[in-house]
Amino acid sequence: MSLRSFYIRSYALLLMLTLLVALVGYLLVSGLNRVRERAWQEHFPVPLLSWLRDNPDGVHVANWVSDNVDIQYSSTADLELTPVERERLSYGQVISRNRGSVAHLLLKTSGNGVLDASFDHLYQDVSRVSALIAAWELEQISPVQRHQVLDELGGQLGIGIRYVASSEEVPGEVVLDQLASNGFAYDQQAPDDAAKIYVRLNDGEVVRMSMAAPFDLWPWPMLLIMLLLIAGALAVANYYVLARLHQRLRGIENVVGRIARGELDARVKVDNVSIVDRLSEAFNSMAEHIQRLVQVQQEMIHAVSHELRTPVARIRFGVQMIEDCTDEATLHKQLVGIDSDIQELDELIDEILTYARLEQGGPILATQTVNLQEVVEQVVREQQMTRPNLNIHAVVDLTSDDWKYVDVEPRYIHRAIQNLVGNATRYAAGEVRVHCHFGEETCRVDVEDDGPGIPEEDWERVFTPFARLDDSRTRKSGGYGLGLSIVRRILYWHGGQAFVSRSEDLGGARFSLVWPRSQSE
Question: Domains plus CATH for the chain?
Answer without folding.
Answer: 45-210 (no CATH), 297-362 (1.10.287.130), 363-521 (3.30.565.10)
